[in-house]
Amino acid sequence: MFNDIGPLELVTLVVLAVLVFGPDKLPKMIQDVTRTIRKIREFSESAKQDIRSELGPEFKDFEFEDLNPKTFIRKQLDNDELGIKEIRNGFDLKKEMAEVTDAVHGRETESSSSSSSSSSGSSGGTVDMTKKPEKPGDERPPYDADAT
After folding, report:
1. Residue 138: is its pLDDT beyond 70?
2. Which one, of 85, 65, 89, lies nearest residue 76 by Cα?
3. What ranges in the chain are assigned the alpha helix state H?
4. Does 68 lie in the same domain as 36?
5. Angle 127-131-133 (CA atoms, 0-180°, nearest 5)?
6. For residue 44, what are the domain limits?
7. 99 and 111 Cβ atoms separated by less than 8 Å
8. How far apart are the first and last CA of the chain?
9. Per-residue confidence (pLDDT) for residue 84, from 0 to 100
10. Taking a C-beta distance cutoff of 8 angstroms, is the pair 111, 87 a contact?
């Protein structure tokens, strides 16, 4: 709960508490706070037990932590009845992106070079996207008064 509080911060909080509440009232305040936290925990545990008893025996292994979406997904991935790991491992995003990049730059990849060499009568079929298209002269497109 307080994992990110350093020793200097803890000492500062103790000194501040002594200054605000005084050394006489501080032990009483600590007891009151711990008693309140204990009551809140007991109340939440009884509420959880009531919910489990109302849900019935088919939800006997229900955990409230499973309502957290990250925990739910982690449990489902570990279960893997649907073959999700196989599907996820089937996609090689880096390879796909490299193929797209190579196609844009006009280079042939291993898979496209083998497929283009096996196709009959293909003339390469690659388009060099780095070249600018040739313009016939300096012709302007026709003016369309309705479009403006």
Report:
1. no
2. 85
3. 7-55, 69-79, 84-90, 93-105, 110-118
4. no
5. 90
6. 1-58
7. yes
8. 65
9. 63
10. no
The answer to whether 108 touches 116, Cβ cutoff 8 Å, is yes
**Both tokens of residue 39?**
């009551």
Q: Are residues 51 and 34 in the same domain?
A: yes
Number of domains in the chain: 2
How far from 109 is each of 15, 83, 118, 126, 129, CA to CA, in Å? 68, 30, 14, 12, 16
CA 117 – CA 126 distance, rounded (Å): 13
Q: What is the pLDDT of residues 60-102, one digit of tens each?
A: 777 888 778 888 777 777 766 666 666 766 777 788 888 888 8
Instruction: Say if CB 29 and CB 21 are below 8 A apart.
Output: yes
**Do 47 and 4 fall into the same domain?**
yes
Is position 102 within any domain?
Answer: yes
SS3 category, 37: helix
Domain-located, residue 25: yes
SS3 51: helix
- Measured from the Cβ of residue 33, the count of other Cβ atoms closer than 10 Å reads 10
pLDDT in tens, 17-73: 889 988 899 899 999 999 999 999 999 999 988 888 888 888 777 788 877 888 877
